[in-house]
Amino acid sequence: MKASVPVLGGAAVEVDLDVSNEVLSRLVAVPAFVDLYCDPGFPGFPPRETLDSLVVGAEAGGFGALLCSPRVEPIVDVPENLGRVEARGGVRLLNAAALTVGLGGVELTEMGLLARAGAVALSDGGVPHRDTAVLRNALEYAREFDLTVLLRPADADLDIVGVANDSAAAVRLGLRGNPAATEEIGVARALALCRATGATVHLTHLGTAVAVELLDRARREGLPISGSCAARSLLLCEDDLDDGAYDARYRLHPPLRSAADRAALVDGVRAGVLAVAADHQPRAPEEKDHEFERAVPGSAGLESAFAAAYTALGDLEATVRALAIMPREIIGLEVKTLAIIDPLGTTLPASAGGRHRADALAGRQLRGAVLGLSR
């Protein structure tokens, strides 16, 4: 039936909904969310995901646009590998092209050609750069085309060490530790290069209190830099891993950090320092069905991101700002669709099965629900 739903901070919108009057009375429309770091299984990895499952998951999670990582098959390092920027249903599929050929960190891509072909950003694909000179050259080159550069800040050598936060929890579990210092070093380097080159940089996958502090200081300085964390990281920390009986759902990279780090992320989002990403990295069941250290890191995130962030923040306006407003400002995207939200509803992230892929938040009851997109 046709119904009128108020828009957060604006007028009402007419939508087609089949809900009770009680549910209808509490609905609100907000700008559709934007995932700043979507590492999809499509194209190239059909056991992980298809185009249809990607779009269905985005619509179910209230996402109107996905900024897709170049780390697909084939890698998006030449114009021929760029997907067409189009809407599937109410979802826009946007491309971040690779900074370096094959994401190898050695030879720069033809960024100008990639921009003209439709790339809206450049990315390291979550693969940290070992060569700082190459990274500096890449940022200088990207600045000429006014493209935001997405970097996962990490020291390339330390980043490959360990599968859990380097702490007492990892020792208790007998897991190799990954030090928080890898992110702190990566953030410090990114800030220095941003300052030196004037390039616009976005830091993805932030997970430590020190990283939030460094980013806040840099933004106050006026550097053209922003950062985001995964929605799941606002709820999960290494304590969940300690209680998880080596549950491979929690095999993530970067790994879950301490409870104090998690609290710093929540504070950073509330303060407007951090945006929030779904960090959608679907994995096939056979990739997760291993002992913890051998399981492929990653988690689905589109369908649970809003509820995870809303549960952690307890503030609808702050959640919308972090998932919809800030991401649009970071990549220069206008609002084309709205998400219909039930703030009093609940979301139960799915376990693997059917079109679903393992979600690290599966089994938790989260606050808030998305009823879909209004086009």
Question: What this model shows, in words?
Answer:
It is a single chain. With 375 residues, the chain is α/β, with parallel strands linked by helices. It has a single domain (32-335), classed as Alpha-Beta Barrel (TIM Barrel), CATH 3.20.20. Helices cover 32% and strands 21% of the residues. It has 13 helices and 16 strands. Strands 4, 5, 6, 7, 8, 9, 12, 13 and 14 form a 9-stranded mixed beta sheet that branches. A 3-stranded antiparallel beta sheet has the order 3-15-16. A two-stranded antiparallel ribbon has the order 1-2. Helix 7 runs parallel beside helix 8. The radius of gyration is 20 Å and the shape is globular. The chain starts with a strand and ends with a strand. The model has no long low-confidence stretch (mean pLDDT 93).
Defining traits:
375 residues, alpha/beta, TIM Barrel, nine-stranded mixed beta sheet, three-stranded antiparallel beta sheet, 13 helices, 16 strands, globular
The class by helix and strand makeup works out as alpha/beta
At CATH level 2, the architecture is Alpha-Beta Barrel
Radius of gyration: 20 Å
CA-based shape: globular
Oligomeric state of shown chains: single chain
Largest sheet: 9 strands, mixed
Number of separate structural domains: 1
CATH topology: TIM Barrel
CA-CA gap between termini: 15 Å
CATH class: Alpha Beta
CATH superfamily: Metal-dependent hydrolases
Estimate the helix proportion, in percent: 25-40%
**Poorly predicted tracts of residues:** none
